[in-house]
Amino acid sequence: MVTRRTDPEAGRAALTAWARDPEGARRPVLAPAVRHTLELFAEEHPGGAVELRVPPYAAVQAIAGTRHTRGTPPAVVETDAATWLALVTGEESWAGAVAAGRITASGERSDLSALLPLTGPRRVVRTARADGHPAEEER
Question: How does strand 103-106 pair with strand 58-62?
């Protein structure tokens, strides 16, 4: 079970702000949006076989399989905030991000293509863009 550290409403608000202005999003928007979506991913795909890292914002362990407790995990996926949010919301494909070198993935179960995007974040972004109102949240 994932311990939620990000207020879900704050996470959705940050994701909405990112959707309305992805290029202009700064740490006050990126940090809660990334943390919220990583927590959702770990809830939907519980386990400890893969460590998913989006530095400098957060990392989670997810996906069933061998769990690690020390040292380098058996599988690691790392990407930047913009790529992670694009993947989780369906704005970018896993294959496209890997081909562009925006994801490093090593170890068994590190291909997350079948697990992304996540329905909830995808819906939040589509709704935000359909509304077309400027983001009110601080960047």
Answer: unpaired
Beta-bridge partners for 124: none
Q: pTM of the full predicted structure?
A: 0.89
Cβ neighbours around 17 below 10 Å, total: 25
- 22-36 pLDDT, tens digit each: 999 999 999 999 999
Rounded to 5°, the CA angle 98-67-89 comes to 35
The residue written with tokens 């386990």 in the block is 47
Q: Measured in Å, how far apart are the chain's first and last C-alpha atoms? A: 31
Tens digit of pLDDT for each residue in 88-99? 999 999 999 999
- For the 8-131 domain, the top CATH level (class) is alpha beta
All structural domains of the chain with their residue ranges: 8-131
